[in-house]
Amino acid sequence: MILQALYDYYQRKRDDLPAEGLESKEIPFLIVLKLDGGFLHIEDTREGEGKKKRGKSFLVPQAVKKSGNVAANLLWGNLEYVLGEADPKKLAEKQAKGAKEKAKYRQRLLEMHSAFKGNIQSLPESVRNTLRPVITFLDRRDFSPLYADPLWPEIQTGANLSFKIAGEESPVCSLPEVLGSVGVRAEDIAGAGLCLITGERDAIRRIHPPIKRVRGAQTSGANIVSFNLPAFCSFGRVQGANAPVGVRAAFAYTTALNHLLASEQCIQVGDATTVFWAERAHPLENWLSQLFDDPPKDNPDQGVQALKALYAMPLTGAAAVEESQTKFFVPGLAAPSKSRLTVRFWHVATVGELAGHIRQHFKDLEIVRPQYVANPFLPLKTLLSAVAPPSAQRRDGDIDSLPPKLAGDFMHAILNGLPYPQPLLQAALTRIRAEQAKKRDNGKPAEHVTYARAALIKAWLNRHNRNHHPQEREIDMALDESCTHLGYRLGRLFAVLEHIQQDANPGTNTTLRDSYFGSAMSTPGAVFPTIVRRNQHHMAKLRKEKPGLAVNRDKLMQAILNDGTDCTIGFPATLSLPDQGRFVIGYYQQRQALYEKSQTQPETSEEGSVQ
Asked: Structure pTM?
């Protein structure tokens, strides 16, 4: 199904994608030669600055699948293949292992360069005549002028290079006569048969072209379809013949997927490299990455704009997105081994269904936000970072430290309108508990129930109830004083007790939350009797210094304590995970309500939230 959809996408984008046997490839460096084969200079095709410096892309003969063996590309490659020169890092590694390893590496270099020259010699004579300067330069093997060029050290870093003949605009690997001579190598054919994708007879591809830019895979690429061990083969078939895909179809689906992976229709969701496309051109192809990926620094409102566009389509005179029956495809690819890919998830829906699920996701996330949060938009990476454990390199959460499948399962739930995975709630609660006593550099309490965490927990609870307990009322965006759910009311009570402590002791850097939040959230019966008793001391002080405020606080606390269906709140021994989530939301929303009503000028946290 995935390969068929990718094949169809190639047919749709055929005019924009390379023809069979070709691909678009960055070639950062070109060795410019005279007509007699003499060296002129090294041309740098790169543009940009710093880490964003990228080589110019050219249409070149498609890369061959090496699989650890010596296999040269036609007229382009790295230093080892093109010139037979050693990679300095590899040479140092071999020298460290001894003279024998160094000798093996030198012998392999000869084989690699010989394969590169052999590809040139296998071309038709008319093409070889065009390439005479290159052939002469390689046969002379006088590279001393090359070593003196200022760009030689950068070529040694492993970048791709090719040749260019003086007077030509394109490198030799992109000349029309070279591209026209490209064909599938005989060793890549596993006989003839019926292609599983097209349903037509064709030459069957033995080893499929590599898929590149999937996180965790080797830089030379990995495969979705691969049969390298006898245990995976049957009926005497060899490699690709076990799942016969024709040469044309294999080229089409791999070219389409590589194009998507290099485009803006690709986002990284945890360990799943996710691409997406529609069976026909549709605006959602452009919006999806903006809805789920972090916005660029030069356009921080990109996600908000995309979400507004998604909501506004029915109002602009365009066809309503909810009514669109155009199919939309979203696969998530992972690389558990460097040479093979797995499909983490595969989602197919109509554009209308998908748009509805995305809108529901963002609606579920809606929650009252602190004044310091100027942008309410919460992309997927922000949510995952909010619940992931921090690392030495990142002050915010390190998404890579989350369970490998969690991000993919989260994305799958969003696309399908399903409940979020339970480990997501566990991760959020764990991160909140871990940061309950966290302080800023100035000693003031840092935010632990952040806007992103509260929004995610609220969304998790509403989606869980919608699918498993439809009789439960959904959590509102702001404080719901009529909600009698025990976990929610306990969270509200804790927020009020904490606020009373701060009212009685302005400027205190240590609050109830530092010592009691985690245990109050999970085992309230063991904690609340203690902190309620301690509150009497704070209330006594407040009655002396701020009697009016003391009356308001006392009324609010009594309303929370006595407004239950049984007229008493009670302190159960434990709370379930969902109830702990409700505790957090009650705490968060009550705090926001108290700040809005506050008549004083309180201290603020680093993020701007009142402490």
From this structure: 0.79
